[in-house]
Specification:
CATH superfamily of the largest domain in chain C: Sulfite Reductase Hemoprotein, domain 1
Largest interface: B-C, 145 and 151 residues
Oligomer: heterotrimer
Distance between the termini of chain B: 71 Å
Shape of chain B: globular
Number of strands of chain C: 15
Strand order of the largest sheet of chain B: 1-2-3-6-5
Strand order of the largest sheet of chain C: 1-2-3-6-5
Number of strands of chain B: 12
Radius of gyration of chain B: 25 Å
Number of helices of chain B: 11
Radius of gyration of chain C: 28 Å
Chains: A mainly alpha (93), B alpha+beta (382), C alpha+beta (437)
Low-confidence stretches of chain C: none
Structural class of chain B: alpha+beta
Strand content of chain C: 15-25%
Mean pLDDT of chain C: 97
Helix content of chain B: 10-25%
Mean pLDDT of chain B: 96
Chain lengths: 93, 382, 437
């Protein structure tokens, strides 16, 4: 499958991408004083959307470089690229 | 070394990107005898330890020679496997779910040369490269996790104890003298990235000391709320500590008596290491199985609370396992799995026959299900 | 060798294949480099791995640190970051990341394909692997951050091969050998495993679940891939009609012409085969007996435990009305204790395109778990928290006594208002007309 299938999904999605993107980035930045990595459910809550709808936005934000993954191996989290202390601690900054 | 580009353009990661294609399709890799008879197998028989024949409705037969594989495997070794498969098996080979390697041939006369070839190959220092066995009522390969070769939270090594244990159980890898199959598994910490909780014998790495706190660096290396949230028993709280320079440092405090030594905090926060030479070691569990045969699948039970790590050969762990295997071999009925045997004779008898001490650590006290494991009948054995 | 390894060297003797010897031969091969490979990561990576492993054997402690950021662009799984905590001493393994490569069903390979993978991994990684990881993937063990995208690009462009799962997503599904070479497989485990893996690629690569989720496919109740113990949805082959019998072969077993259990007990003299002792009396439902020299089975009472079929594979065969039993919620002990899969579907057909399984089982369960599951809560834990009833409601399944070992032994039923005649709204004044305060 070509990765652009993500965009075709976005075209059909109920949430407006630009609006959702702004909402999510603002929501995450607001919380970034205490932590910068979030579970998927936290993102869905900020977006006030069902997980499957939220996922479409999140997938595209990853491709657009507005979000990045962080994985513990067993669990995954999301954050704004470059924010937080992990990058420095992992020498990947 | 000069950087060789694959064609990937880091400035445009989406350019020509191919994703979501999944694995190669299984049937590309079937040997012809498998492709021709799939779904039409009549029966099988183990001709001798490590050698099976499957007979199809068509009359076709596939002879499989199973040999021990080491999960941690180099390309050198894989390429040798390829050489063997090309020499004997028209370039086909497969692995089992327990890290064994299976070479398949389509006629009986090809079996002996293949077996001879496999058994003749040894590493420079003398161990077999491809010992034939691992079938029937014997010990098959130990499945295991990464251990000190790769993992950041192991309480023991994996490849080392596995090698030491398999050396001790080697005769049973190549024989069918046990009452039923005996599955041994190893996970190097309680998170069990390889599940071992339903094995006849499980070797489990276990930490016994709560994490250390690298206060000077904790707030620099970690996001404290994430470390707190990582704890499954809510044992971590935020706190302030007096720093070396007289200032206050943001850090965490751990309620040590609530710590279950899982290392999840260390995964989120490298300033909370918990590995410890004296604290870490091995738990032995026994009596689990996944098959529905005769009795329902069972969880393994803790039978030895702690054995210190003894690299490089883990002699106490190996000897304890060997003792259990011998007691089981001597006493169990034909077809009876280790756990079925323990339940039939009673766990009190199991400890006696295996010469294992019963300590308070072996009585469950973790949350609700603990109660159901206490003896709630006057029936027991003296 | 670059480092002395006196402790590891002790693991080179003994008969079982020595991983230390294998690491050493790999280290030597890289050092010699007879093929003139332009190694893209340090040539002495394996020597440094031996060195750091020796140090762990000495210290009794690991020397690895976790890394959560690295991965390939757009995927949340498939790569596990690792860094050595003694990088100056062992620069070859300073970065030592893992890649999970989605293995083919049944773990069948052609040597042509294995050689391609080896070539890629020798060039761009340590050349060390796990064949295979616990979930089933081929594990590429040890490469540097800049190589991750290069490896992924080559894999997808040249080898038509994708990564497997890690993190909070669908983990690489895995299967038993199934119909490819087993007479007991009640459905095509490889076909369904491949179909679901392809169908749910987005779930596999882009984590949006509360935690990991595993599918495993066992062809029969012997459960060779242990689905019942470790997969959130476990598919176990089964049948509903009669076990097929060949009475002549039964006699051949009784007469000792065919070894019982496919010859698996050949290492000891267990005495002559005794069908009563070894089969009939071990049947958990006692639904077998001999009559006029013939083996009889009351198939209606059979629970398909496989014992008799395992013991006499040439006389007894699985039935023809085949499908899967689906169990949900299995997991290893972390955190609240181990859970075995609980039965949610006694029988369903498992034939392509598997629409019923996808639309009536998998997708409703995922929707429920994604909405209601707490962070890091496995499906089994959600089932425990909200009840098996809730899962049945979500899937629209009727309750069935097959789903329980026994009915509840407490009467504390949480009745819902619409189940109670007249509902819960009552007029207290009317009550008082009959009862004084």
């Amino acid at each position: 499958m070509h990765p652009l299938h993500i965009f075709s999904e976005v075209l059909q999605m109920a949430l407006d991408y630009e609006e959702s993107k702004t909402k999510l980035i603002e929501g995450l930045k607001k919380k970034s004083k205490s932590k910068t990595k979030f579970y998927f459910n936290d993102l869905a809550k900020i977006l006030e959307a069902k997980p499957r709808e939220a996922k479409k936005v999140v997938n595209r934000m990853i491709i657009d470089g507005h979000l990045e993954y962080w994985s513990s191996g067993s669990t995954s989290m999301y954050g704004i690229p470059g924010m937080g202390k992990q990058a420095a601690a992992e020498h990947e900054d | 070394m000069a950087f060789i580009s694959s064609g990937y353009n880091p400035d445009k990661p989406m350019e020509d990107r191919i994703t979501d294609i999944g694995p190669r399709k299984y049937d590309e890799f079937y040997p012809p005898v498998i492709a021709n008879n799939k779904g039409k197998w009549l029966y099988h028989e183990i001709l001798k330890p490590g050698v099976l024949v499957h007979v199809a409705e068509s009359g076709d037969k596939v002879f499989t020679v199973r040999c021990g594989g080491v999960r941690l495997m180099s390309t050198t070794h894989i390429l040798e496997i390829c050489d063997i498969a090309e020499k004997h098996c028209d370039g086909y080979v497969r692995w089992t779910t327990r890290n064994n390697i299976e070479f398949m041939v389509d006629s009986e006369d090809k079996v002996e040369p293949l077996v001879q070839d496999l058994e003749s190959r040894k590493f420079a220092a003398g161990s077999y490269k491809f010992p034939v066995g691992g079938t029937g009522a014997g010990v098959t390969n130990i499945i295991h996790t990464q251990g000190w070769v790769h993992c950041h939270t192991p309480a023991t090594d994996a490849s080392g104890p596995v090698k030491a244990t398999m050396d001790a159980l080697f005769d049973d890898f190549k024989d069918h003298r046990l009452p039923a199959q005996l599955r041994v598994s190893l996970a190097c910490c309680l998170n069990m990235c390889g599940a071992v909780h339903c094995s006849d014998i499980a070797i489990l790495g276990y930490h016994r000391k709560p994490p250390m706190l690298d206060h000077e660096y904790l707030d620099k290396m970690c996001e404290i709320p994430l470390a707190i949230a990582a704890c499954p028993t809510a044992a971590i709280k935020p706190t302030k500590i007096d720093g070396a320079d007289g200032g206050k440092l943001k850090s965490v405090a751990v309620k040590n008596e609530r710590c279950m030594f899982c290392g999840n905090c260390y995964t989120m926060c490298p300033a909370m290491p918990l590995a410890d030479q004296e604290g870490d070691g091995i738990v032995l569990m026994a009596g689990g199985k996944v098959s529905n045969r005769i009795s329902a699948p069972k969880f393994s039970k803790v039978v030895v609370a702690f054995i210190p790590n003894e690299p490089p050969l883990w002699p106490t762990t190996v000897a304890t396992i060997k003792k259990m295997v011998e007691a089981y071999a001597k006493d169990a009925n034909k077809y009876e799995r280790l756990g079925e045997w323990a339940e039939r004779i009673g766990w009190e008898r199991f400890f006696e026959k295996c010469e294992l001490d019963f300590t308070h650590h072996l009585i469950d006290d973790f949350r609700d299900p603990a109660y159901f494991t206490w003896r709630q009948t006057s029936q027991f054995k003296f | 060798m670059k480092h002395e390894t006196p402790l590891l060297d002790q693991l080179e003797s003994g008969p079982w294949p020595s991983f230390v010897s294998d690491l050493k031969q790999q280290a030597e091969k890289r050092a010699k480099n007879e093929e003139g490979i332009d190694f893209q990561i340090p040539q002495d990576v394996v020597e440094d791995l031996l060195g750091v492993l020796e140090l762990s054997f000495k210290d009794g402690e690991t020397h690895w640190k976790h890394g959560g950021i690295v991965g390939v662009f757009g995927y949340g799984g498939g790569v596990i970051g690792r860094y050595c905590d003694q990088p100056e001493q062992f620069p070859g393994v300073a970065h030592f990341h893992t890649m999970r490569v989605n293995h083919p069903g049944g773990k069948f390979y052609t040597t042509k394909y294995l050689r391609e993978l080896c070539e890629l991994w020798d060039l761009r990684g340590s050349g060390l692997t796990n064949m295979h990881g616990s979930t089933g993937d081929i594990i590429f063990l040890g490469t540097t951050t800049p190589q991750l995208e290069e490896i992924f690009y080559e894999m997808t462009h040249k080898h038509n091969q994708d990564l497997g799962g890690s993190g909070s997503n669908l983990r690489t599904p895995s299967d038993c050998i199934g119909q490819a070479r087993c007479e007991w497989a009640c459905y095509d485990t490889q076909a369904i495993c491949y179909d679901f893996t392809q169908e749910y690629q987005d779930e596999l690569h882009r984590p949006a679940f509360p935690y990991k989720f595993k599918f495993k496919f066992d062809g029969c109740p012997n459960c060779c891939v242990a689905s019942i113990a470790r997969s959130d949805l476990s598919f176990i082959g089964t049948w509903r009609d009669d076990i097929k019998m060949d009475q002549e072969a039964v006699q051949a077993y009784i007469g000792g012409e065919i070894p019982p259990n496919g010859g698996s007990h050949s290492g000891r003299d267990w005495g002559p085969f005794d069908i009563n002792k070894e089969v009939i009396n071990l049947c958990p439902t006692q639904c077998m007996w001999m009559e006029d020299g013939k083996l009889m089975i009351d198939n209606k009472e059979c629970t398909r435990c496989m014992h008799c079929i395992n013991v006499m594979p040439r006389a007894l065969r699985i039935g023809d009305d085949r499908g899967v039993t689906i169990m949900a919620g299995a997991k290893a002990p972390i955190l609240d204790g181990a859970q075995m899969g609980s039965l949610i579907v006694p029988f369903m057909r498992a034939e392509p395109p598997y629409t019923e399984i996808k639309e009536k089982v998998i997708e409703p369960i995922w929707d429920w778990w994604m909405e209601e599951g707490k962070n890091r809560e496995r499906l089994g834990e959600l089932m425990k928290r909200q009840g098996l009833q809730r899962l049945l409601e979500v899937c629209g399944f009727d309750p069935d006594p097959r789903m329980v070992q026994e009915p509840r032994s407490n009467p504390y039923i949480f009745w819902k208002e619409d189940e109670v005649e007249g509902g819960w709204e009552r007029d207290v004044d009317k009550f008082r007309e009959k009862h004084q305060r």
